[in-house]
Design goal:
With 137 residues, this protein is mostly helical. The protein has six helices and no strands. The two termini are 27 Å apart.
Length: 137
């Protein structure tokens, strides 16, 4: 990949994050937090929810998201880690759309248009009403 394409992919990733931000980042205000936040907090402070059947049930299932977010939250803090978990896939959507368009022979303008249309698509996670929730991937 040429430097110009790398710069374009990074710009498309940033634009995709911006498009997702139009729908709002909802850390602390999403009703979905009731499902994942206690499980992550339990990972950070074992025993915090001792005896809580809902948290115990959540931790019996697949816990990749909880574990990964807890690992990120230790050095970064929970809110920063959740923002990173939100921004990384949103940026990847735009960067991958740019890279795919360029690989298929499009010029820079066509790749930018592809990235913009993908970022604004309501059918994709990057620009959906759920875009602000780091759990939804």
């Amino acid at each position: 990949m040429r430097w110009r394409d790398l710069a374009g992919a990074l710009a498309a990733g940033g634009a995709s994050i911006g498009a997702a931000a139009l729908f709002g980042y909802s850390f602390g205000s999403s009703s979905n937090h009731a499902f994942w936040l206690p499980a992550v907090l339990e990972r950070l402070s074992p025993g915090l929810y001792a005896g809580d059947p809902a948290v115990a049930a959540a931790l019996r299932g697949p816990t990749f998201f909880y574990d990964a977010l807890a690992v990120l939250a230790r050095p970064l803090g929970l809110e920063t880690a959740a923002a990173l978990a939100w921004a990384a896939p949103a940026g990847a959507v735009g960067a991958l759309a740019w890279a795919a368009a360029r690989t298929l022979g499009s010029g820079a303008a066509g790749a930018a248009l592809a990235a913009l249309l993908v970022a604004l698509s309501s059918l994709l996670r990057a620009a959906s009403p759920w875009a602000g929730d780091p759990l939804v991937k």
